[in-house]
Design goal:
By secondary structure, this protein is α/β, with parallel strands linked by helices. The chain has a single domain, classed as 5'-nuclease (Rossmann fold, 3-Layer(aba) Sandwich), CATH 3.40.50.1010. The protein has a three-stranded parallel sheet with strand order 1-4-5, sandwiched between helices. A two-stranded parallel ribbon has the order 2-3. The longest helix has 14 residues. The protein is globular.
């Protein structure tokens, strides 16, 4: 599952967890590189909801979030997510949103769970590079 020239990055929950535990680590560096290239990594709002708890402990997460463009889930996206879950035989709504956003943007996904994202993408014969953190 590789795309030769991905058009950007999509962050999943694992990416934000890595940013929280390693404030100047891989996720921060990849987001910074995207910003320097004139792009904003994409962050589905449901991923932020899954991770965000607030407080000073999440300052590094807040820093990464500032570098991203938040993608909201509307009715059309919700229907697409449900359909993808049905086709793939999986149940994780957040992972399905991440997969759809990445496929729509021809972007790579920064994830700690490449197996689940990969299964979703492969179920519709999509192509999404996965960067494991």
């Amino acid at each position: 599952m590789t795309v030769l020239h991905p058009q950007g990055l999509v962050l999943d929950a694992g990416a934000l967890r890595e940013a929280e535990s390693n404030p100047r680590g891989m996720v921060w560096a990849l987001c910074r590189r995207e910003n320097q290239a004139g792009r904003q990594p994409l962050l589905p709002s449901v991923v932020l909801a899954q991770i965000w708890r607030g407080g000073a402990r999440q300052a590094a997460v807040a820093s990464v979030v500032k570098a991203t463009r938040i993608i909201d889930v509307d009715e059309l996206m919700a229907r697409r997510v449900g359909k993808l879950l049905g086709v793939s035989g999986t149940a994780d709504v957040v992972d399905a949103v991440v997969a759809i956003v990445a496929m729509d943007a021809s972007a790579a996904v920064i994830t700690s769970d490449p197996v689940d994202i990969g299964k979703l993408v492969e179920s519709v014969r999509g192509d999404v590079p996965l960067i494991t953190v």
